Amino acid sequence: METYLDNNATTKVDKNVLEKMIPYLNEFYSNPSSMYNPARKTALAIEQARSQVAELLGVSNPKTIIFTSCATESANTAIKGVVSHNKTKENNHIITTQVEHPCVLSVYEDLEKKGYSASYIGVDENGDLNIDSLLKKVTSKTILVSVMHANNETGTVYPVEKIAQEVKKINKNVKFFVDGVQAAGKIPIELDNTDIDFYSISGHKFHAPKGIGALYVKKGALFDPFILGGHQENSLRAGTQNTAFIVGLGEAAIIAKNTLEFENKEVRRLRDKLESGLLDRIKNAKLNSKSKNRVPNTTNIGFEYIEGELILLYLNDLGIYASSGSACTSGSLDPSHVLRAQKVPFTSLHGSIRFSLSKYTKEEEIDYALSEIPKVIEKLAKISPFQDELKKLGM
Ligand code: PLP
Predict the structure, then answer these.
(1) For residue 79, how far is its CA from the centre of ligand 1 (angstroms)?
(2) Averaged pLDDT, groups of 10, the chain, 395 residues long
(3) Ligand 1 mean position to 377 CA, how many Å?
């Protein structure tokens, strides 16, 4: 049975989203910047989507939403745009966490090479952020702080509203960017009346297609635009707007907003069933998603003394699809930077698997996963070089 448990990598496009998009690919194809009537229809569709995304993010002014090609672009726009706008010889300090997605960490590393000074804040063994250490790093030289809302590998949720508020108490000029990709559509978001300046989302994580994202820019938060050209998106992001995909993002946003509570209840129930079922049935299983604050769809479990890539290959043969970390870092044999930051012991670091569900996950899939995964782990335990250690665990 095909069992897709990798929804943090990407999700299936909702049929209602697809239906709303199709007319904008052939029937209403005008360039939204053109002056004639059909073009006004496409321009209006974009504005409606902007309002829908604003609603998902708890933002009363839709003009604060800019459409982008993906959340990687949104993060690059916010981070590079803020530092470029604010850099002086004295102001060159930027802060983030050790557990960010590569779309933030790589930009920070690149900025370090260009002469910026960066601080990377750690997390504790549960994956929670050390907020006091972060606040201690904020000085008059700090220009940007980036903290993700929910972690893509463990699902840990960080209190970004509170962190932004505390940061601004120390230095009100600091700009605060939040990678909200794994939070949007999973937990309520209310950006109005917060100190968050920039917030990024990605359509393909909540049932819109890949290749469409958005960036919230608080009124008055200045940055140098990343993509230059025409005057689209209020001259903040050039390039002819991808009308059909923007319409899809708007529809997905409004579906997510309206069904958040119900979906979350069911997704959480299935996630908890999978998680407790695996921990009960498998003696070398250790929970990595230990924070009390996490999104409802994710769990990360380490299987001690077993190689994660092997687990994934065996699961693949059974039609069970999961992942060992961020899709953007798969292919690298390095263990997850998120789990290393959390000090997950080496015994389960290499055998850690992320399972992520969605509103399309069915009970039968969870039952199938619960019946097959323990057999796979048992098989792999038999060929592990750590027989003595596994025996001690009763395997
Ligand atoms: N940020 C987080 C937390 C993610 O999980 C991802 C995708 O995996 C991204 C950013 C990048 O999103 P996109 O694929 O839209 O560039």
Answers:
(1) 15
(2) 96 98 97 96 98 98 98 98 87 96 98 96 97 97 97 98 98 97 97 98 98 97 93 95 98 96 92 98 97 97 95 97 68 81 94 97 98 98 94 93
(3) 30
Task: For residue 338, give the amino acid letter.
Answer: V
- Write out residues with Cβ below 6 Å of ligand 1: 70-72, 101, 103, 148, 152, 179, 181-182, 202, 213, 326-328
Expressed in angstroms and rounded, the spacing between residue 222 Cα and the centre of ligand 1 is: 23
Task: Put the strands of the sheet holding 175-179 in their side by side order.
Answer: 65-68, 213-217, 198-202, 175-179, 142-146, 93-97, 117-121
Catalytic residue among 135, 227, 328, 393: 328
The residue nearest atom 7 of ligand 1, judged by CA position, is: 9
Both tokens of 284, joined, read 């070398």
E strand or H helix that includes residue 346: helix 346-349
If you search the block for the tokens 């690149």, which residue do you land on? 110
**CA–CA distance, 13 with 207 (Å, rounded to integer):** 4
Nearest of 259, 231, 316 to residue 6 by alpha carbon: 316
Is residue 328 flagged as an active site residue? yes
pTM over 0.90: yes
